[in-house]
């Protein structure tokens, strides 16, 4: 099944002094999602932004807000982010009871995603795939922008697509016009990219990814 390719620019790579303008630009030139990395300085080394920043941007955009909680024990944050997000993704490595966390996200009427770090096998999702809307395959180790794509993740994407023909597969890390071709051929349909888009001609970059 061929799925529509969706572009989800990562706000982490935008100019923080003009976030509203940056979001308007990528929306104008064909992005459908906005990827929002929430980092706690614990699960990943860096700290990014939280609910107040994302909430303030919600009223200025019609993009799908794709919130990626890169935090330990994310359950305590889900209620706050549910007010202004469309998809909430948690890391399988960061939760004690994955099914319970997925059900919590669903209880707020939001789509649930589960992210897997590069070394985390697909097996952890064996009993949960039917309950989630999206799997985020990390193609770099999380926590920093501008990292080099890990080529072994191509097979991981292929394996997941073989297991489930319909689920949304999102990829995040080192995505540019070259790696985008590889992940799309492998079966990914949602591409997260930060520095590639925000480093220049937004229209040209988004079109090249699609």
UniProtKB/TrEMBL annotation:
Pathway recorded for this protein: Carbohydrate degradation
Keywords noted in UniProt: Carbohydrate metabolism, Cobalt, Isomerase, Manganese, Metal-binding, Zinc
PROSITE patterns listed in its UniProt record: RIBUL_P_3_EPIMER_1 (PS01085), RIBUL_P_3_EPIMER_2 (PS01086)
GO biological process, one term: pentose-phosphate shunt
Catalysed reaction equations from the record: D-ribulose 5-phosphate = D-xylulose 5-phosphate
Cofactor: Mn(2+); Co(2+); Zn(2+); Fe(2+)
Active site per UniProt: 37 (proton acceptor), 172 (proton donor)
KW Membrane (keyword) present: no
Residue numbers binding a divalent metal cation: 35, 37, 68, 172
Cofactor descriptive note: Binds 1 divalent metal cation per subunit.
GO molecular-function terms, A-Z: D-ribulose-phosphate 3-epimerase activity; metal ion binding
One GO term describing the cellular component: cytoplasm
Pfam families in the cross-refs: Ribul_P_3_epim
Positions in coiled-coil regions: none
Alphabetical list of InterPro entries matching this protein: Aldolase_TIM (IPR013785), Ribul_P_3_epim (IPR026019), Ribul_P_3_epim-like (IPR000056), RibuloseP-bd_barrel (IPR011060)
EC number: 5.1.3.1
Record-linked Gene3D superfamilies: Aldolase class I
Similarity field: Belongs to the ribulose-phosphate 3-epimerase family.
PANTHER family, per the entry: RIBULOSE-5-PHOSPHATE-3-EPIMERASE (PTHR11749)
Protein name: Ribulose-phosphate 3-epimerase
Natural source organism: Leptotrichia shahii
Gene name, Swiss-Prot/TrEMBL: rpe
